[in-house]
Amino acid sequence: MIFISRWKFMITPDTQHLFSNELAKYNLGEDCPVFDNLFEFCQIYAGGTIDAACRLNNKLCDIAINWAGGLHHAKKCEASGFCYINDLVLGILELLKHHARVLYIDIDVHHGDGVEEAFYFTDRVMTVSFHKYGDMFFPGTGDAKEIGEREGKFYAINVPLKDGIDDSSFTRLFKTIISKVVETYQPGAIVLQCGADSLAGDRLGCFNLSIDGHAECVRFVKRFNLPLLVTGGGGYTKENVARCWTVETGVLLDTELPNEIPENVYIKYFGPDFSLKIPHGHIENLNSKSYLSTIKMQVLENLRCIQHAPSVQMQEVPPDFYIPEFDEDLQNPDERIDQHTQDKHIQRDDEYYEGDNDNDHQMDIA
């Protein structure tokens, strides 16, 4: 029971046990902690991806970006891996209102298990995930043998990789597979998850990709000239995440950015060279040519088994969410942010620390 007075409440041991069971039921706690304004946080990043899909459907843009999205581990009934709501699934469902086939591509270092699971039994969505697999690496799924079931058989493609893959190996494999996927599947729209934890130097990742190598995958997908929804994802060395998604925003806008980072309030985090690009890493590449060739041939063989560009029966299309009638680009960005919203942009006291209290600095030294 909970006893509530005018100013405070008391949680009994029985109630505490009940709360713990509810948290465990939905996999909350551990790597999915509960924090203040969690629901609003989910509304913002998931709503951004849904809105991006709506804008693509209504031809208000060719490319829509939501770097706050890409939380690909969340499942229908549970949180997982820092992901609470799977915005990618919601965005893809929105795209399916207007497109017979949607292609999902994932270059996060972790397997895109939540998205794959959501569409494992359908040919309306093809999921392609390039990720680290083996050595009990989270989430433990993503073997090349996981190909989908029932109507979705062969429409789930997994490219399991080992530690240390470099730019040339990764981009060569990526381009070969994605070219064949697009040619065979003929999607109406593409969703690209750009998790930055596949970069060299990430605290949880184990690849050797430079920002140029990561961005080359984005550039390649853009060349198909299909409606494209781009999201963020993982990334645990924050200064490199910021670098990566800045460069890739430039790629998507056909804008070449200078390598020198301009002066800003966070400039100290980008020292000592204050440059936008980062080089590749030096982890031993355990992906031999024969291993990558075997994976490539297995994927291409599975693609030969699918129905060429599967069709979908005509049916009533559900209504779109609200689309504003005015052009937001013409609005003054300072005027359309109310005070309540501005107040929420205040930096948390524990977000960045100075000097010896900087957790990131301590971890780098360690």
UniProtKB/TrEMBL annotation:
It catalyses: N(6)-acetyl-L-lysyl-[histone] + H2O = L-lysyl-[histone] + acetate. It holds the Pfam family Hist_deacetyl. Residues 334-350 have a biased composition (Basic and acidic residues). Its cofactor is Zn(2+). Its EC number is 3.5.1.98. Keywords: Chromatin regulator, Hydrolase, Metal-binding, Repressor. Substrate binds at D31, G81, Y236. Gene3D superfamilies: Histone deacetylase domain (3.40.800.20). One of its GO terms (cellular component) is nucleus. Belongs to the histone deacetylase family. HD type 1 subfamily. PANTHER family: HISTONE DEACETYLASE 9 (PTHR10625:SF39), HISTONE DEACETYLASE HDAC1-RELATED (PTHR10625). This is histone deacetylase. The gene is LOC101507737.
